[in-house]
TrEMBL record:
Protein family (similarity comment): Belongs to the cytidine and deoxycytidylate deaminase family.
Residue intervals of the CMP/dCMP-type deaminase domain: 13-140
Domain of life: Bacteria
Keyword Zinc appears in the UniProt entry: yes
InterPro entries membership: APOBEC/CMP_deaminase_Zn-bd, CMP_dCMP_dom, Cyt/Deoxycyt_deaminase, Cyt_deam_tetra, Cytidine_deaminase-like
Catalytic activity entry: cytidine + H2O + H(+) = uridine + NH4(+); 2'-deoxycytidine + H2O + H(+) = 2'-deoxyuridine + NH4(+)
EC category: hydrolase
Alphabetized PROSITE patterns for the sequence: CYT_DCMP_DEAMINASES_1, CYT_DCMP_DEAMINASES_2
Job of this protein: This enzyme scavenges exogenous and endogenous cytidine and 2'-deoxycytidine for UMP synthesis.
A cellular component term, taken from the record's GO annotations: cytosol
UniProt protein name: Cytidine deaminase
Active site as annotated: E67
Length: 149
């Protein structure tokens, strides 16, 4: 997939391609408890795409979200710089915004990282963590506390 710059507006071809990867990943969702399958696709700066799906558990609280599975896969394979993440919930006509835990994890890797969500068959919504998680606790918060700021 063609790498794009994070500062550029998301080009529609890349957005739709990433959404296709997220929908494909959604087919692997393990969601026997919620029946709410989610897929995610994360585009790394080097062009690699890392996908994830939600992985639930009989001990409900240890289930993981699609976004964090994708980020974990990417980081464990050496990717840390990302250009966009697409998230596809069960219904392509309703944008599925990342949960609070995922907002925190996405924010770690880029407050401005474009988040693409399907919004009908040929439309998508774009947002980022600056919008969804304003005032996030991040690496700078740790440094500020250490230095007494
Ligand atoms: O953005 C989201 C929102 C929810 N879920 C998962 C968690 C759980 O398995 C199911 C219902 O919340 O959907 C995700 O993977 N990503
Ligand atoms: Zn989540």
């Amino acid at each position: 997939m063609t790498p794009v710059s994070e500062s550029e507006p998301m080009d529609p071809q890349t957005a739709f391609a990433l959404l296709r990867h997220a929908r494909e990943a959604r087919t692997h969702a393990y969601a026997p408890y919620s029946h709410f399958p989610v897929g995610a696709a994360l585009l790394a700066e080097d062009g690699r795409v890392f996908t994830g799906c939600n992985v639930e558990n009989a001990a409900y609280t240890v289930g993981n979200c699609a976004e964090r599975v994708a980020i974990g896969k990417a980081v464990s394979e050496g990717a840390r710089r990302f250009l966009a993440i697409a998230v596809a919930g069960p219904d392509d006509s309703v944008a599925c915004t990342p949960c609070g835990a995922c907002r925190q994890v996405i924010s770690e890797f880029g407050p401005d990282l474009p988040v693409v969500m399907p919004d009908g068959p040929d439309r998508y919504k774009l947002t980022n963590m600056r919008e969804l998680l304003p005032g996030a606790f991040g690496p700078a918060s740790l440094a500020a506390a250490r230095e007494g700021r």
